[in-house]
Amino acid sequence: LYGRAGYVNLDDARRHTLDGLALGAGAEWRLGERSFVSTEYRYTDFNQDVDSHAVTARVLCLLFVRVNGTG
Hints:
- By secondary structure, the protein is mainly beta.
- The protein is 0% helix and 66% strand.
- The protein contains no helices and four strands.
- The chain has a four-stranded antiparallel β-sheet, with no helix packed on it.
- Strand 2 and strand 3 form a beta hairpin.
């Protein structure tokens, strides 16, 4: 489990600048030796009565494993 907080500055295509606070929380689970799944929720509160809610989900499968040789 993890949390995040930060400041966001966004310049859009219409030359508007939005500033605000970004908050989020998420979790990651190991499915196997080389695979993981995670989900995250992000909330951004911009300063001009504009806000954003986003949910993401990711699946990660490691295809290569580096093995340190001794010689």
